[in-house]
């Protein structure tokens, strides 16, 4: 949980050093925006909190965005068209007395007055604390952690994954509970915002009250979400790895297409502005800064000898969804794109950690909703790209059980545990991996469940081991010998204050694909 620092502005300057601030002023010479050298804000500029992400053995990304008026509809956050010096510190203790790194950056209007500091020179597998200062104002103090060095022996690693936080649908109570867990990392799998204009019934309607289509609209959406104290607590407690799904841009978008009524060039302008706002509001590295309508998000992050994360993008490079059976079975169709799939295959084939985690957006395993021999499948999932999925499953089999592939997924507002088989239509086909699907933070609201429908789905899909429709997140504890997934749920989200509980736990044994209920 981020905490306020009692330190004064003078103390901060003494700790960070005047030279760092001077360097920040010097770097602004090449920037066309004038520098607001001594800013005085009408309100707290740190209304959106602080965050960290992309941990490496020697550093992390520190993030904040200045927004004294975060919901101002022009998307400026109440900031002038000037760049603002922002100082930062990293300390070994929460009182910020043992500062080990400090410096300054500029919050520039071209990036929505966001700051992405790529701190280096830290020790691997260590907890650190950080804060910012703008003008006279200090930010909350955040907590973060560096990754263990590649190959370093790790006895355990804990992370949670989550997705789908529709603001009007509920309160972010799950984030509050997640911030209090003992975790090394949070992985967010998409639908951080929603583009629609829904107002809901609990007093948390989207601003602006229309569909988001412009850079200003998307900036306001991200700011609105980040004003939530529970989400700020989750960001401020752990480093995050993030990827997007569809609602950061438009519902069910695919590649360069949105819907038949939108010309491609028009959609790409919208996508570019949505990507820009996404980068501005996430703790991402400069390597992930978008270039127009392109944003490179697939990347690998390693934590010692224990776990590798492959952050995937199943939106930007996919072929458009198809409703025809012949189209669905076209061997040329792709969901990852040839370049990303080739990168993933080569990465998995080389030296890896013990557990290999594909963190992605839409359900990989087959879900047949039609009782009987006919199949009813979801078009916005890997079910619409079965040849690409079978190719990946076969590759898992080729690599062997020692790679311990586990896919973690969001999107569908439900929890699933699935055995990944080389042929989902053959219950006797080899199990080559495990998929864990996390429910939503709020999307779907207080779902009353569908026991009869879930029972039919389990009967029709014997590779599915567990279904649950409550809201929450998945907590994972990994050791060299096993992976334990705890499905943490809250009973309601349409009012605050729900307690959290573990609905079910499953264990994956090292070298043995598939999950079993924890006793």
Radius of gyration: 23 Å
Total strand segments = 22
Task: Report how far apart the termini are.
Answer: 32 Å
Unreliably modeled segments: 1-30
**Can you give the mean pLDDT?**
94
The first-level CATH class of the largest domain is given as: Alpha Beta
Largest sheet: 10 strands, mixed
Helix content: 10-25%
Number of domain units: 2
3D shape = globular
Beta fraction of the residues?
A: 25-35%
Instruction: State the secondary-structure class.
Output: alpha+beta
Give the CATH architecture of the largest domain: 4-Layer Sandwich
> In order across it, which strands form the biggest sheet?
5-2-1-11-10-9-19-20-21-22
Oligomer status? single chain
H/I helix tally: 10
CATH homology superfamily name of the largest domain: Alkaline phosphatase D (PhoD)
CATH topology of the largest domain: Purple Acid Phosphatase, chain A, domain 2
């Amino acid at each position: 949980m981020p905490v306020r620092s009692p330190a004064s502005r003078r103390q901060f300057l003494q700790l960070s050093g005047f030279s760092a601030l001077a360097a920040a002023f010097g770097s602004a010479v090449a920037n066309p925006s004038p520098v607001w050298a001594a800013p005085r804000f009408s309100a707290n500029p740190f209304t959106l909190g602080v965050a960290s992400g992309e941990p490496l053995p020697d550093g992390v990304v520190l993030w904040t965005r200045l927004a004294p008026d975060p919901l101002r509809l022009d998307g400026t956050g109440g900031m002038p068209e000037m760049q603002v010096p922002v100082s930062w510190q990293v300390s070994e203790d929460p009182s910020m007395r043992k500062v080990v790194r400090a410096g300054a950056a500029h919050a520039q209007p071209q990036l929505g007055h966001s700051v992405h500091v790529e701190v280096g020179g830290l020790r691997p597998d260590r907890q650190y604390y950080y804060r910012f200062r703008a003008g006279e104002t200090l930010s909350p103090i955040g907590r973060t952690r560096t990754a263990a060095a590649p190959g370093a022996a790790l006895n355990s690693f804990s992370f949670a994954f989550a997705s789908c936080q529709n603001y009007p649908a509920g309160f972010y109570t799950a984030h509050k509970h997640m911030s209090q867990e003992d975790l090394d990392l949070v992985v967010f799998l998409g639908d951080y915002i929603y583009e629609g204009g829904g107002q809901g019934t609990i007093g948390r309607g989207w601003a602006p009250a229309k569909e988001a289509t412009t850079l200003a609209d998307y900036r306001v959406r991200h700011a609105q979400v980040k004003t939530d104290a529970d989400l700020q607590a989750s960001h401020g407690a752990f480093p995050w790895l993030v990827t997007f799904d569809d609602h950061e841009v438009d519902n069910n978008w695919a590649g360069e297409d949105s819907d038949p009524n939108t010309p491609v060039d028009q959609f790409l302008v919208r996508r570019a502005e949505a990507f820009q706002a996404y980068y501005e509001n996430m703790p991402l590295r400069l390597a992930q800064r978008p270039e127009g309508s392109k944003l490179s998000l697939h990347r690998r992050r390693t934590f010692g000898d224990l776990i590798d994360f492959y952050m995937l993008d199943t939106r930007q490079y996919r072929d458009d969804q198809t409703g025809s059976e012949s189209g669905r079975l076209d061997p040329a169709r792709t969901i990852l794109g040839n370049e990303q799939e080739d990168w993933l295959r080569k990465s998995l084939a080389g030296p890896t950690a013990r557990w290999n985690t594909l963190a992605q957006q839409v359900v990989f395993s087959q879900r047949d909703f039609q009782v009987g021999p006919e199949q009813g499948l979801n078009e916005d999932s890997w079910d619409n790209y079965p040849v690409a999925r079978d190719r990946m499953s076969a590759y898992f089999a080729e690599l062997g059980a020692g790679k311990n592939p586990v896919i973690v997924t969001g999107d569908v507002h439900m929890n699933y545990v699935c055995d990944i088989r080389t042929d989902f239509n053959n219950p006797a086909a080899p199990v080559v991996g495990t998929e864990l699907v996390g429910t939503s933070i709020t999307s779907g609201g207080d779902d009353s469940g569908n026991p009869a429908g879930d029972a039919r789905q389990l009967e029709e899909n014997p590779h599915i081991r567990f279904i649950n429709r409550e809201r929450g997140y998945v907590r994972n504890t990994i050791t060299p010998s096993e992976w334990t997934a705890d499905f943490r749920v809250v009973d309601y989200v349409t009012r605050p204050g729900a307690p959290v509980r573990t609905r079910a736990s499953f264990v994956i044994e090292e070298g043995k694909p598939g999950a079993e209920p924890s006793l």
